[in-house]
Structures are given as structure tokens and as C-alpha cells.
Amino acid sequence: MGTGIGSGGHARRPLSLVSAALLAFGACLAYATGAGPAVAAPVEECTAVKGAVVAVDFGPFGGKVERGCDPTPTTGYELLYEAGFGTEGTQHDGPGFLCRIGYEGFNGGKRYPTPDKEKCVLTPQATAYWSYWVAPRGQDHWSYSNKGAMARELKPGDVDAWVFGGTDVGGTTGKPTFTPDDVRAKGGEEPDPGGGDPQVPPGRVDVPKAARWLLGRLTDGERVVDPDAEGPNLYATTEAAFALASAKGQGPELAKVTAFLSSPATTTGYGWPDGVDQPPNAAALARLALVAQTSGGDPRAFGGKDLIATLAAQVCATGPGAGCTAPGDFVNASSAEGQAHALLALERAGVQPPAPAVRRLAAQQCPNGGFSYVLIREGENCDPDPGTTASAALVLKRTGGQDAAVAKALAYLKKEQQPDGSYLGWTGAPSGSSPVTAAAAQALRGLGEGARAEAAVAWLSRQQRPEGGFGFEDGADTTVNATAPVLLADAGTSLVELTAKKPGPGPKPTDPDPEPTTPGPKPTKPGPTPTKPAPLPGDGPDLARGSAYLTKPANLQRGVYYFDLSRTRADHGLTIDGAFALAATGEDPQTLRRIVDFLDGLGKDPGGKTIRNYTGLGTEYPMSGKTGKTALLAEVVGRDPRNFGGQDLIAGLGKLVCGAKIESDTRKCAGPGAYTYVDSVFGQSLGIMAQLRAGEKKAAEAPVAYLLSLQQDGGAWPSIIPSTGNSDVDSTAMAAMAVDLAGGERAERAVDKALAFLAGKQQSDGGFLGASDTGSSVNSTALAIQGFALDAGKYRAQIIKARKFLATQQNKDGGFNVAAREPGSDIRASAQAISGAEGISFATLTGDLNGTVEQPPGPAPSPGASAPVIVTPGDTGGTAVAGGTGGSGATAQGGSGSLAATGVRVGALAALAALLSLAGWWTVAYARRQRTAHGGR
Description:
It contains 30 helices and 16 strands. It is α+β, with helices and mostly antiparallel strands. The radius of gyration is 28 Å and the shape is globular. Helix content is 35%, strand content 6%. It starts with a strand and ends in a 21-residue tail after the last helix.
């Protein structure tokens, strides 16, 4: 890298690249799509709080770091254009996957890498590509982007960086050699957080009304049961207990809820979800202990358990490991909030909290003073969350010895408070969040900022719905989890000091009743349990609702899903994912038939593309993994893979088996037995399953042997081919399915090792991590379940926990989040969640089309003929284009890694994997980060 940092400075060109990008998506991808630069705006037009800045390091090509500005930023992709940079995508993936970047002030705008170094036909190798890094306003360290440039929505003060070279799967290597502050625009700096308090009209919450609403949400007056759920939501039930302790005191309402929670069956089921012979869930134990403490009960004799003694014995001595991310964690604490609650429960019981556990909570503090919700280790990306910060600050103040951390947390909370008194529920949210603002108000009051706390409560008072409850944010449904913390905030208390008041004398007989005699309708009691046994143990998600989400007309149109908002380019890979999900559940065979008929009948998208464009058979660059995936679909539904879409997919696969490694082009042939142009373990596995299911056991011998050769000593498989040595959950599960189908002693040993590896990667919440720092991944967890199902008897406990995690990630519209900390229903995550929850291997999956009616694809619609309904981040209804909440892309099949070059999330570069096989082309459009209004159960 050069030592200087340049900046452009001319008048802007008015043409928006958003329009150009949409045109490019609909255009033929037989050539590389490039975008010429605009005439850049002067960097001086941006400041630390206005506009956005992008820096591109041309050091590897003999240049320096060049930077530019967009005073009115929209997306990361348009920022490059408006800042004077030109880009070029790949022929295969389109303009969204940035393969070359040039700058008008460097070598006449020549784009790098040049064609003699990188053809930009296929996805670049992980060792030499443009990686994408981001930093929000006020942050002076880079985070590996978990979004595509087209999907990343910018905010004032954001800084982006593009670096050419290699990264590891998680983006912990290959960072820019300069800091965000080195390239950030100067001027307009943030005001001192100690400045004036928000000036807002006063207001109070109608607590009696909120309490009546909350009581109406209780089934039998004792527990919260979510709509369509059979069992209670125990997290929400504890929230209700805290709210009643604050609003009603030690009255009969609170007594009924605490009696339910303190029954031995409930306490054991919540605190020991995997059985009393397994480690407990410390977060659940802490919440139960706090219920006892706030309601006047005894946490040492609650539900027949000594919760305090049990909690004190649950501090991890080592980690990472089962239930422990690092030493000092409480076992299965799951989050910084769970860690804080466990410390608080001990402190309130008069037990000195273990010093390692206190230090572990303090270690969750980010450089800007906020605290991460996800328990992170040193060196991992820290994403601050106001609600978690509030809880951590209050608890650390109570435990003592952490004055500096508490002061930093308070400064962060003051800085994050909006002028109207609220706090945003997720970065970039258009308005405040009720439960987050309530949590912050509790902390502000407890830390001596009464005026700011009152401003927060005043804002909350204006968010109360007519029926009395609160939603997570504007437009979201009212929930117990959103309402309960508001009652504590209005009362000026928190879990640190909350104690239910003893009831005073009741009203005189002649007085009117203080409350209505009927608090409102109660949820309908759950119906009888279906007689048909579940294919796997444990409570899983509602697959009928999930299938309905996948098939709603705004998502699936004419039997196909789309990449982009304009509905110009079909996502054939995602469409096949949806078909696999419908085949697994058997919920909607007619819609499954519609998908199959569209693909088999060469249905065209508005750009004229069919399934043949997806497989690439007969072209210079055939896509082996996609060919295998398409053939596998034909086999699943009983179609002929030797004549599907007018192609013999099995013969095509056979011709794509490499006889030897091509040293000069390992992407074409990575080794003997690898498929041509397969660059992921996903793709190799899909090809193997397709060949074996077609009876081509001999032809599959070399591909199977090559796949087995990639397995690591610890049992894992890497994500990409040629291997970079990473260990990937998603790819390991997929490879295990393929190898299991192949059979034989070596295959059996390989599967045993793979499942043992997967078991060691399960998180305390039952899920499995992807590449980002947004908690357990739905894709990864679903695939792991399919892997465990190969030996369901041995891995029963793991399956139960994983299915339970998937259930917590299902939204009310039936769709699923991408990850625990990525709220918002996502089509691809939903498809994989549904397939995984059934636990049927892709190697044996079948779908029944008997009795269905043929549905020819018909003519292609004109571009933009219909517009999708964009899903609101969080637990909302609505639909999404492939990949979530808007933007041109779809999440990868896996999520265990990413190529930040476009910000295209590649499942461990298996996004390459997923990209070229199970997932198809994609740029991710993730919903903003924030825990949902529904807590864990």
C-alpha cells in the first residue's frame, strides 16, 4: 500500500447507478457488467456526521489509498460510483459481485485486477478478491461486511473500505492497514455526550391500562402462550411476572404467575431443558431466581430447587466448549444479558459473584462503551446494543469495582439517545423501540440521569397502543416482552432493585371495583396433539406456517423466486431450495408441482433466462454444483434427471468429473474426482448425491474419493474448493449426507467423525454459528439437524436443542430469521429451516406429486410487472425478495462465511459454495440487528 491517502474533488454526475444496476440485472450476463464512475463530490462535502466516505486501497497495484465522498449516501454500491470509482462484476455473478475497481485519479481509471490477472468470469478466489469493510459513525475499527454493497444501506458518518487480497472465513484477517479515522471526513464532530438533555413534552404511561392488557394475555391467568403454540413461552411469562411485581405488587395476579413458575415441572423444564442429568440453562435459572427475589419468594427453595447454589456452580472454567464460549461464562448463559442476570441473581441473594464471571461481562464492552448482546471473545467484532448496555451497566454498578466500564456505558447511552428521548431498536431504524428505550430509561435513572430517563418515559407514553400494550417498534404487534419493561421504566425501577410491594387494605365493599371483572379475551387453548409422530424428537417450528410463507404469492411468482426488487432475474437456486422444503413437509404438493413444471418446462424470467442458464451445461463454464442440484430436484420429485429441462443432467455431470488436477487453473479442476468448476464442498456433495441417486455408483467413485480426501482430522470439511483449511458446519453436514449415501466402511467412519465435529460446535442456545457475529445461524442449524438425523439415536439431545432453536427463530408470518441477531423473515433461511427441521437428508428426500395438476410456465412477465411487499425488520408480516428485506440478493445456503468483496455473504466462501451450488448467485440484504420482541423460551 502507498503511504498517501488521496481524495477526489469535482462536481457530481446526476445519473443514479441504482437505475443502471437494475438495468444490468435484467441484461444478459454473457459479458462482464461494469459501472463507470460519476464525477466525484469533494470530500469536503462530507463530515463526521454528514455523508459517507469510501476508501479503496490500490497498494497491491502500485497505487495508494484513494477516497471519495457521497454527501447523500444510499448504498455501498452507489457510494463507490458517486465517489468517483468505477466497478465491474463477474460474467457469472453479475454487477453485484465486485471483481474490479478503478479510480479516475489512478492510471486513468484502469480497473484492477487487470484481465491478465483475473478474468472476472467466475467468482474470484478467496485469496485474491476485493473484500468489503465498514465502520459506522464514531467507530475507529473495521468490521467485515455481512452485507453486499448493493444491500448495505448507509447512514451519515459511515465509512467503507475495499482491500484487495485474501481473508479468512470470518474476516478476522486481511483488514485494511489504515483505520476509519485515517480516512474519515473531518468537521461536524459529534457533540459531547454530556451535552443537553432531550427537550420533550412530559408524559406518563397509563400503567393500569397496560397491566390490564398484560393480564389479558395470560392463559388461565398464569402463563403466556404464543399464538399457535402448544406450550408456554416461559421467557415471556417471567417478563409478565416482573411487570406485575412492579404494577400490582404482591397481589393475587402475581401470586398465580409465580405459583406456575415455581411448580417443580415448570422450574425443571425451564432451568434444565435437556434434562436434569444435563447442565442447566443459567440464563433461565437466573430469571427464575429474579422472579423469586422480586416477588418476595425464596430463590433457594423455588420449584424444589436451590437456584442460587446451582447458579454459583455454573461458571465455566474453560472454553469454548459445550455451553461455554469462554472461561467465566455461566453455562448456557447464551448472551451478555443472561450473564448479567446470573450475576444479579447471585448479588441479590447475598452471594459474592465469581470474579471471572464479572470480568467476562465487562469484557463484552465495545470500544465506544456499548455492550455486545452476543457473548464474544477477544478479537471478535463487537456490535453494541443499547438494551444490553443498560442491563450490563446496572449490574456492574451493583457488583462494584467496574466504575470505568459503567462510566463508559453511561456515556454511550447518553450519546445514543435520540432527540425525542427514544433509543433505536437496531442500527438505522426509522424510529425508536419501546423495550430498548424502556431498558435504557431504567439504566439512566439508576445511574443518576433522571432527566434523560424522564425524556425516555415521556416518549414511551406516546407509544402506548389504545388497548394498553406496546410493540417492539412502530407498526409491530403488541407483545408481553415489549410491554413488560415499560412498566418498570415508568415506575422508576429495574431488576436491580425491584421488589413487589405488599398489598394494602382492599377497597370498601361499596366502592367500585378498581379493575374490570373481565380483563379481556384469553388466547384459545391449544388443540390436541397430532397423532402423527414427528420425524425427529423435540419441539420444532410450525412447518405448515413456514410452508405458507414460502408459497405466498408475493414471494413465489409463477413458480419461481427472484433476486431483485424489480423481479427481472429469477433465482433458480433459491427456487430449488423452496422445492426441497415443500417436498420435505408435503404441505403443498400443487405448488411444488408449479415450481417443478416451471423449471422442467424451461420457464423464462423477464430476461429470458431458464434453468439451462443456471446449470451452464454446454457452455464454456458449466456449473457442476448447480447441475447436481437441479438433477437432485428431478430425482426428489420423481422426474427423469436424464431429461429435465431438455437436458441429460446425469450424463452432463459424468463428463464434468476431472481426471487430474490442472495446476494452471485449479478452479477448473482442483484434483482428480473433483467436478469441473466446482468451488465448494456443497457443489461436490450435490453432484455426488445426484449421480448416486441416478444409479451411477461407478461414475461417482472418483467424486466420492475426492470429497473424502478433503475431510480434516477433526472430522470437519472445509467450505471451498480448493480448500483453504477452514472447518465449516454447513459443508460438513452436506458432505456427511453425500458420503452416507455412498456407503462403505470408510464412509461410515467419515460420517461418525463429521457428526462428532458438529456436536462440538453446538451453541448453548441449540444453534450453530455462521460467519457473522449475529448469533446462531438458522441455515447452519438446519443443516446440522439433517446431519445429526443420520444417527438420530445417538444425537437425540443435540437434535432436540437445535429444533427448539429453530422454533425461536420463526416469525409470526411463518418465515424465519437469518440468525438469532438478524431479525426479519428471509426466504432462503426459511426454506432451509423447513428442510432441516424435518431432518430428512437431501440424499433420501422425496416429494409426492401424485394427484397434482400440470402447470405449464406460460410466457415470461415483463420486467417490474409486480412489486414485492418488503418485510419490516423484526417479527413482522410481509414478504421479501430472495434474501430478506430488500436489496438485490439472497442469503447463502449456509452462512458460515462470507466474501465481503460485494459484501456477497458466501457460506464460508461457501457462499461461493452456496453461491455456485445450493444457494445460487446472491448478495445479502440482511434486516437490521436487534433482538426481536420475542425472547427465548
